[in-house]
Amino acid sequence: MSPPVVLTIAGSDSGGGAGIQADLKTIEAGGAFGTSAITSVTAQNTQGVRGSHLLPIEDIEAQIDAVLEDFDVAAVKTGMLATADVIETVVDYADRLPNLVVDPVMVAASGDRLLEPDAEEVYEELIAESTLVTPNADEAAVLTGINPKNEGEAREVGEQLVELGSDAALVKGGHIPIPEVTDVLVTADDVTTIRHPRVETNATHGSGCTLSSAVATRLAHGDDLTAAVESGVDLLSRAIRYNLDVGGGPGAVHHTV
Ligand code: PLP
């Protein structure tokens, strides 16, 4: 048996809800083989981030090299990249990163920053290389200057990101204050709207990581982009609805539903 291999380039979350830990659980639950390059080691739990230690660039490169030289990687996702230097390092590898899903992680659900402010503009370079970029409304506002409050504005965000060079943008509706969650997938020639009921829960830690990993996993299995996104959104809805109660804080999404 040889499952497709997915690489996650992201930060470690000691609390297990987000980051590399969420990615690997999601990838394995999706029937692929998960590999990783850790950018930063965070000390955190369900209540917040206590500290963060960035790895030297050469150690991040060494991990990516070790994976790429040994495995036939079918899809890649990026999560917490922490600094402009790390983003630029990933851009340098872009030609060798197939089915690249970029989750432009900036701030944790607890409000803690996971990206240095001067790195925000460098994200454009990585988005230009991506198969899919998956911003929430806050990240969309930083990346495009539009803070989407409705479906039309989410579509405008997606169009701007596709103009930057991404094959597609999934503008996530979880942070947009309308009753039904509306995610908007924009490609160069199509717009797909995915609606699902809002689930009242605070256990959303790891939702962005889980969604982007689920989509990368489906791309690795050979799904086309729209099918992979629909499958990822469906998985995340179930993962949030599970209302996983772990730790003393708001909990986390379930990664293996
Ligand atoms: N990556 C790491 C290492 C994190 O700690 C977090 C949030 O705490 C994230 C990514 C983003 O998490 P989410 O999936 O909730 O957007």
How does this structure look, described?
There is one protein chain. With 257 residues, the protein is α/β, with parallel strands linked by helices. The chain has one domain: UDP-N-acetylmuramoyl-L-alanine:D-glutamate ligase. The chain has eight helices and nine strands. The strands form two sheets. A six-stranded mixed beta sheet has the order 3-2-1-4-5-6. A three-stranded antiparallel beta sheet has the order 7-8-9. Helix 1 links the parallel strand 1 and strand 2. Helix 5 crosses helix 6 and helix 7 runs antiparallel to helix 8. The chain starts with a strand and ends in a 16-residue tail after the last helix. The structure holds pyridoxal-5'-phosphate.
Fraction of residues in β-strands: 15-25%
Q: Could you give me the name of the CATH homologous superfamily?
A: Ribokinase
Rounded average pLDDT: 95
* Helical content (DSSP H or I, runs of 4+): 25-40%
Total number of helical segments? 8
Radius of gyration: 16 Å
Topology overview:
Elements: E1 5-13, H1 19-29, E2 33-45, E3 48-54, H2 57-70, E4 73-78, H3 84-93, E5 100-102, H4 123-127, E6 132-133, H5 137-144, H6 151-164, E7 168-171, E8 180-187, E9 191-197, H7 207-220, H8 225-241
Parallel strand pairs: 1-2, 1-4, 4-5, 5-6
Antiparallel strand pairs: 2-3, 7-8, 8-9
The chain binds pyridoxal-5'-phosphate.
GO molecular function, one term: ATP binding
Organism: Halapricum desulfuricans
Protein name: Hydroxymethylpyrimidine/phosphomethylpyrimidine kinase
